[in-house]
Design goal:
With 345 residues, this protein is α/β, with parallel strands linked by helices. Helix 14 links the parallel strand 8 and strand 9. Helices cover 47% and strands 12% of the residues. It has a 7-stranded parallel beta sheet. A two-stranded antiparallel sheet has the order 2-3. Helix 11 runs parallel beside helix 12 and helix 14 crosses helix 15. The protein binds coproporphyrinogen III. Coproporphyrinogen III binds next to strand 3.
């Protein structure tokens, strides 16, 4: 099969024959074929088994017909490699039973060699590159998002512990951010060296910060990561969830693509981040719309995105667990149809 590079072209702002599509969390529990793999082992066991990670990465490529693959793993894997205990509890999500609350825990945190501690991820990438005819996206969590898990001990609603540390013990907070940043740079570089053809940084929680606090406590670390990764020569993507009020600060980030959630109009996002390319941003719940309304909404989204330097279609956040798989497939087909440029050669 010939290699489909539409996604990579769009990342670089080059002309494309149609709008490329992939979906955040395109591999996962909404797919019965994923559930079947997961019945025999825990999520973390799955993440550490390269052959099975390859299998579940490929499931949505075969079924949905998306234009890019994303490595099957999790943003919390590097925190475990740094020495933090990590568990996933069914129905509750990630639990870090020994979160960082003081200097002693900070000092125990290591900046690991990704080849020694996360070889299973790099192995998955190498195996995937032999199978894929679409580009492979590698990823990591952004420092602020990872820091919230390491300080809260899991998911949070108010992020009180994180903000308490930011404001009452800033040296400690910045030291944690610095260690996570160093780990993230060497981990993403190793992913590119293993064969990842694009790299996405997930900032799922930066949107909880006031603009001035984002600028001071989170943005400098994101800037550092992308600046350091420029010489990897692969497209760099920064996904910022709930980030409408922060997009005007993205100019200094050396990523070619900014991923946005559904709370902002994609055309407005494109104006704010121009000349960067935009990725997004359908509300994951909109997959439940009846087909005619879904089509109308996609037409509007694609029209709004026309003012961007380039557009990669995605959801504004991950595919929900309770999404009917055929609706995800319908969206991919509709975007391909509606965006096809008949006179492009
Ligand atoms: O298909 C893909 O997108 C690739 C795999 C992927 C997963 N997680 C698999 C996963 C990616 C890119 C992630 C990123 C991730 N992980 C983020 C950033 C994106 C976002 O959603 O904001 C975050 C915050 C995490 C942390 C995490 N992992 C949480 C909060 C949870 C529990 C909630 C949930 O949806 O289950 C996970 C578990 C997880 N990561 C699952 C999958 C498929 C479900 C595990 C299972 O029970 O099988």
């Amino acid at each position: 099969m010939t290699f489909n590079d539409t996604f990579l072209k769009a990342c670089m702002g080059r002309p494309v024959e149609y709008t490329p599509v992939w979906l955040m969390r395109q591999a996962g529990r909404y797919l019965p074929q994923y559930q079947r793999v997961r019945t025999n082992l825990s999520f973390l066991e799955l993440c550490k088994n390269p052959e099975l990670c390859v299998e579940v990465t490929l499931q949505p490529i075969d079924y949905l017909g998306v234009d890019a693959a994303i490595l099957f793993s999790d943003i919390l894997i590097p925190l475990e490699a740094m020495g933090l205990a990590l568990e996933f509890h069914e129905g509750r999500g990630p639990v870090l039973p020994e979160p960082i609350h003081g200097k002693a825990a900070l000092d125990r945190l290591i900046v690991p060699d990704p080849r020694e501690t996360m070889g299973f991820v790099l192995k998955t990438i190498e195996l995937l590159r032999r199978e894929l005819s679409v580009p492979l996206i590698g990823f990591a969590g952004a420092p602020f998002t990872c820091a919230t898990y390491s300080i809260e001990g899991g998911s949070s609603k108010v992020f009180w512990e994180t903000k308490k540390m930011m404001f009452a013990a800033p040296e400690l907070f910045h030291a944690i951010m610095a260690k996570i940043t160093q780990t993230t740079i060497s981990y993403l570089r190793a992913q590119a060296e293993a064969g990842a053809q694009a790299l996405q940084l997930f900032d799922s929680w930066a949107g909880i910060l006031a603009p001035g606090d984002y600028r001071h406590y989170a943005l400098p670390y994101v800037e550092q990561i992308f600046t350091q990764l420029r010489d990897c020569a692969v497209p760099l993507i920064y996904f910022i969830n709930n980030g409408a009020t922060l997009l005007n600060q993205c100019e200094s980030i050396a990523a070619q693509v900014i991923g946005v959630d559904w709370r902002v109009n994609i055309g407005e996002a494109a104006r704010l981040v121009s000349p960067k390319v935009v990725q997004g941003n359908l509300d994951p719940a909109a997959l439940l719309l009846p087909e005619p309304q879904l089509r109308t909404r996609l037409e509007a989204l694609l029209a709004d995105a026309e003012q961007a330097t380039g557009h990669i279609f995605n959801l504004g956040h991950g595919v929900n667990h309770f999404t009917p798989p055929e609706k995800a497939k319908l969206v991919v087909d509709l975007v391909h149809q509606l965006s096809a440029q008949p006179d492009h050669h």
